[in-house]
Amino acid sequence: MRIHIAADHAGFELKTALSEHLDAAGHEVVDHGAHEYDAEDDYPTMCLSLGEAVVLEPASLGIVLGGSGNGEQIAANKVDGVRAALAWSTETAALARAHNDANVIALGARQHSVDEAIALVETFLNEPFSGEARHRRRIELLTRYELGR
């Protein structure tokens, strides 16, 4: 699977660790930055680039990383067609996919160890969308809103 990944300075080290893990697992990892550590970088640029790529490649998924993951989730969700969810447990990572068909996961690098982050990402990647009518209906409502702007 193609996995898009992006991080600001706070998520830079975790991005490297996750990219190595995903590559070793056979995924194609596309890095949207940051490409070097810069304490003054701005996460929106990277997260918007990632979101656009995920929307253009519907079979792909994305991972955005920051200190808390909150700003990165907000930025990614500005891209029409992105459904980014902040995950802080394996349960929230699974529900993001199962109930919301999320195509981007946001993680806080300052909130989780590398092993915890890997578990969150693996849960997210391996959980299928339930396809239940109520979940499809809710996603369709959001899509109609995006298209109607």
Automatic annotation (TrEMBL):
Which pathway? Carbohydrate degradation; pentose phosphate pathway; D-ribose 5-phosphate from D-ribulose 5-phosphate (non-oxidative stage): step 1/1
In its UniProt entry, what is this protein called? Ribose-5-phosphate isomerase B
Q: What class of enzyme is it?
A: isomerase
Stated EC number for the protein is: 5.3.1.6
Task: Keyword check for Isomerase, yes or no.
Answer: yes
State the oligomer form and interacting partners.
Homodimer.
- Organism of provenance: Georgenia halotolerans
Molecular function via GO: ribose-5-phosphate isomerase activity
